[in-house]
Amino acid sequence: MLTRVDVVTSAQTSGAVTATVVTAVDLERRLPPPAALRPWITEIAHIPMVRPAVTAFTHVPETATTIVLRRAASGQRDVLVLGPRTRATYANPNKAAGCTRIRLAPGASEALLGLPAAALTDRVARLSDLPGPAAELAAGLLVREPEEIADFLEAELPQYLRDNPIRRDHRRLLDSAVAAIGSTVPVGEVATSLAVSERQLRNLFTAGIGLSPKHYARITRVRQILAAAGNTPWSHLATDSGYYDQSHMTADFRSLMGVTPGRFFQGRVPAPTPCQSITRPFELRSA
Fold it and tell me: What is the pLDDT of residues 73-92, one digit of tens each?
């Protein structure tokens, strides 16, 4: 449904990865959101109608909470919210579909969806079921074409949002932490540089992103490996992604992807599993 990796061809020679990996990111037409929406939305991306493939799709771990407007070839439409995804899943979609993905900014979940990001981690919900102001726009999003989404959100969403200095300060602090966590700087050093405790930093990430700082960094590194894989030795990939050595990279990749890098790029991935079920409203509120 969202990020999908289709392993097309692969081989491994002299420790180098020589794989052709196509993700949904490669298919996206990505647009920056209008200025009025940038405190809450980082990107609006359109994916055209994609036909079923013979090989399994990989739903890669994801750090962002995303509103997804899914369009099936049959004409059926859904507006869903996908929380951060802590581990990869594998699927064999059997129906053609396209989608628009609205990626929320760190710290924006509560303002838009009425829930901290942690309540949505590894969950799928209908936007209309959520208590936040964005739920009021679900019906309007359902009838919009992809090229109308940005203008619709720019015109309607600010009317429902109520910001305050505390939220703005938390978003700014979280933005600074995210920028630092993406590097090889230890979490403790990031907390010190921001003049907060590690506990405060963890709480900020949990509420605003739905992940701990360490898990956020792990997902970021694995996605760097997926994006950078080419005619590159494993040891270089490990170093470039911030790992101590190749064995640490392999262990982390296997933990998040369910398979080692070598097996993944050979197309030897775990068996597909059914699509994730939609979480009911009372289950979200009790998270």
Answer: 888 999 999 999 999 988 77
Burial class (CB in 10 A: 0-12, 13-18, 19+), 127: buried
**Domain hosting residue 167, numbered range:** 1-287
Question: CA-to-CA distance for 193 and 189, rounded, in angstroms?
Answer: 6
Give Cα separations from 272 to 89, 219, 266 (angstroms).
7, 21, 16
Could you tell me if 35 and 59 are in contact, meaning their C-beta atoms sit under 8 angstroms apart? no
Cβ-contact 153, 33 below 8 angstroms: yes
Please count the structural domains in the chain: 1
| Radius of gyration, alpha carbons of the chain | 19
Question: Measuring CA to CA, how many Å separate 117 from each of 113, 176, 199, 232, 287?
Answer: 9, 18, 17, 36, 10
Percent of the chain with pLDDT over 90: 52
CA distance 47 to 6: 15
Element (H, E) at 219: helix 213-228
Phi-psi region of 271 (alpha: psi -120 to 50; beta: other; left: phi over 0): beta
What would the two tokens of residue 111 be? 């303002």
Q: What is the CATH number of the domain that holds 216?
A: 1.10.10.60
At 50 the three-state DSSP class reads strand
Backbone φ, ψ for residue 229 (5° rounding): -60, 130
Position 168 pLDDT exceeds 80? yes
The HSE-up count of residue 101 (CA atoms within 13 Å, CB side) is 25
Compute how many other C-beta atoms are within 10 angstroms of the C-beta atom of residue 135.
20
